[in-house]
Amino acid sequence: MARGYLPDEEWALVGASLPAERGRWSRPDLDNRRFLNGMLYVLRVGCAWRDMHERYGKRNSVYVRFSRCSEQGV
Hints:
This protein is mainly α. It contains three helices and no strands.
């Protein structure tokens, strides 16, 4: 596992508590994990969303998911 990613043990604890993605196409759990890693990266490093690394997906998508989780109190 690369540095900056959640280990499998931690993902098992938090993965099920993430809210379901809205929209016409649902995202598989693997994408939820990638999005969460992106959120944690931005929070840990303290960079702007536009400076987030590409490996976490589209920065706007990660930000929107972060905003939804924040609104829902996750």
